């Protein structure tokens, strides 16, 4: 519920503070006084686009603050909590617009983007403008009005979810189908390449081993000759070998050690060297014993090594990467096979999703058909009271199975009306006049509002084109709506204003330099005078005042 509205330097308003109450509040005033300014200001609090022209001339910024009680607005309270903007039962929205047209928005003191402000606003209040009646001529608006009245969000969500699932699956199917020939060509190439690599069947790390083996076998003769010579010089040479030379040095220094103990460390090193030479010689002997020159093995290694290099050059990869490349091609070939299998399976999946989609559309259509009958009866009942006693109002819901899929279902929804006896039902835009459209539109808005979870509804001159007894019926409708929620109605009709629980008067003051708009709450005597002005014009007569007093008494009885 809207508790307070504060406006500073907005359009012709310099400063305005309004306390708002439960029930129906009528806002009246002279033409051009600025009755709709409060509505425009609230629109900005709901995230409407800001313009530099909104700032009062001479001011550097405009500021609008709207205070709401969200204790009974579960959706708004939930949204505030989810976005960590909650402050108990209070919700304060503040919008600041600079003279350059830049704006900032705050919720409970925290800056928020306009997208979040719009999202929150839909849970706080709804605004029905004076051109809202024209919207009901649009097919989308007719569908939305019926769905809101039917209160079946679960069915709408089911249809939307199945629609999006179906669309996503069909998109993948189309992409796979479009690339089928390309995949077939790629599959043929990969099949040959993988078959060739499968036949060679190189193992992980095998090329490095082949390379080492190839080098060893290619140099086996030199390895044998040089290792044998090294063994001979280290160990077997009779005239002189390294081990004998070291042993001779150890023998001589051992005799000298008694004369000079500082030779001991050197002697220790020589002893260690003797051991190392002896072990190295034994290792060389073992190496030369196992080293053999095998032309057949050399031929085998040479052939596989060369084949690996040839395949690497053919596939334009490094030879050591041949194994990894083979695995990559094998995996890609497997994926292509899976894609073709997926294409076959996907047709069944799409068929199953279509069945789910059509079933959910059928359930939604049944619900819409039931709601259409109920809503049409209520609208027809109301417009009969608005001087359209012969009118017939119907809502046709026709499933269009051949129509393209939509997240809103497959129904064609049309509001049809006949305003005179013997006149055939036809689309609403082909039958009604401007005044009749206003009455039908207002009836639909009021009836639909009963199902709204928004606690505050604003009607901005929606009674345009209505007068007399019809206006009285409209006022009665709005007052009845005000018994369950907060209704703010900008009107120029005394029959509507008299029905309000509360009334506010908008006046404009000008000193020839600047213009200001003020809004004040009217007491009973002031209401009578304002109603008299609406009835008879600016000149208040005793008769007009008496009529206004009687109208107010009748309306509140």
TrEMBL record:
<keyword id="KW-0067">ATP-binding</keyword>
<protein>
    <recommendedName>
        <fullName>DNA repair protein RecN</fullName>
    </recommendedName>
</protein>
<dbReference type="InterPro" id="IPR003395">
    <property type="entry name" value="RecF/RecN/SMC_N"/>
</dbReference>
<keyword id="KW-0547">Nucleotide-binding</keyword>
<feature type="domain" description="RecF/RecN/SMC N-terminal">
    <location>
        <begin position="2"/>
        <end position="513"/>
    </location>
</feature>
<keyword id="KW-0234">DNA repair</keyword>
<keyword id="KW-0227">DNA damage</keyword>
<comment type="similarity">
    <text>Belongs to the RecN family.</text>
</comment>
<dbReference type="Pfam" id="PF02463">
    <property type="entry name" value="SMC_N"/>
</dbReference>
<dbReference type="InterPro" id="IPR004604">
    <property type="entry name" value="DNA_recomb/repair_RecN"/>
</dbReference>
<dbReference type="InterPro" id="IPR027417">
    <property type="entry name" value="P-loop_NTPase"/>
</dbReference>
<comment type="function">
    <text>May be involved in recombinational repair of damaged DNA.</text>
</comment>
